[in-house]
């Protein structure tokens, strides 16, 4: 995806999605998921919160692509139809991961991916992939786009964000959920890595040597021993 890190960046485009969705019920979503498996979201964004335009991202950041790949390797990954279609040639499906595509159209064809019609069904499919060994790890990764992120935030345990210090052209209007209020209220806590400078990172605004940092948000209200 493009910013499916937020979109899977160059590896996939995490931006817009194909439909608004109803609120999710935690018990329904986690019905088939073992207690030690977390639901986590991952995206990249500008400091202003922009993740893309529905098909692309306003930056190229190789370090973030490596981070996204390392984080999600082997895992079940869930994305909306538009994010799936925005994956770059050679990365659809994302290699080495179980790709699950959410679309209201149950007849939609996603070669190499599993199509489901709801987020709860996508988590059930991810749980099955972990049970049968086609996926590994203890995380179901949500890759976007924007509406999928907003729908899944109430049922997520962890959010991993690459914040990139660059601007974006006006056409890039898809934004990530803001985590600021949730941190202020204590519902989530955040840890931030240091600002780093990319050797080869560029932005469509002409910026080079992009600065970036990785921020990890952990939900405090549903803390479980998810990781050994």
TrEMBL record:
GO terms for biological process: dihydrofolate metabolic process; folic acid metabolic process; one-carbon metabolic process; tetrahydrofolate biosynthetic process. Residues 38-219 form the DHFR domain. Its EC number is 1.5.1.3. Keywords: NADP, One-carbon metabolism, Oxidoreductase. Pathway: Cofactor biosynthesis; tetrahydrofolate biosynthesis; 5,6,7,8-tetrahydrofolate from 7,8-dihydrofolate: step 1/1. PROSITE patterns: DHFR_1, DHFR_2. Coiled coil: none annotated. This is dihydrofolate reductase.
